[in-house]
Write a structure and sequence with these properties.
Length: 320
Amino acid sequence: MFSRKFAKVSSLFQSATYLNAYCSHKYLKMISLESVIENNNKSMKLVDALKCELTSIQAELLNRKKRELRGENARLQKQVESVKAELIALECRNGKKQIPLPGACSLNTASCDDGKDNQPQQFQKKENVEKTKLKNEKKATREKTQEKTNNAAIIEVPVDVRRLDLRIGKIVEVSRHPDADSLYVEKIDCGESQPRTVISGLVKFVPLEEMENRLVVVLCNLKPVKMRGILSEAMVLCASSTDKIEVLNPPENAVPGDLVHCEGFPREPDAQLNPKKKIFETCAPDLKTNGSLVACFKDSPLHVPGKGQILAQTLKNVQV
């Protein structure tokens, strides 16, 4: 009897132990699950914070890039306007006709129209009258400018020696062309910031020693051209016959940069001769030496004012 009760008590005690262990295991599992959920929530908050920070950084970088691009666009726009103004000035100097564009006026009118809706009717009428008056004045100004431009284009400078930029130069350096036996490569001081490189086919006619440090007459507004790989920026004037060539002699007291004039033809040299117009080719037949060895254009002597005439050495009545 006692043993049965003891066995029953032991069984109950063992069951209680199992129940206690099971409950403890369940409790630990619940605590672990809550910890995982809490850690997950913290991770999600951290991810959201990082996303916000990344979005903010991206927006800041984008705004900075936009500011840089706007600044660069503004600088490029200024450069474009400057180059356009320079191009227009050069074209005007060379006699190219300019046609003004009416776009700016219409744009200004359009920008003024945007704010009309919020103004009283009477002010709108007054503003329209003023705009019409201003538009008519601008149109009249454009027409006058166009007329002046057309008149300037009609007045064409005669094709003669006045269009040639003839100056005194001094050869400061001379050597044989590395790729052409008949050519000299000269550095000529024409009174400018840098000497000009000039290619001359004088090897067969003038010794190298006679070319060194001598004064010459230089045609300075020819279009530069490459001769056997070297750019020639001017031309030395010479007197030439069928079998002889002589470099023209400037006055002894002339200096580099002195301008060469021709009596009866006031200087009006082009900035650069247009090869298509063949201005030098038109003048060349009338450039000759006379019986006194003086270089002339249509019998009018070439000279440096106050210093003397341009002379050949021995060749009379020959082509220059």
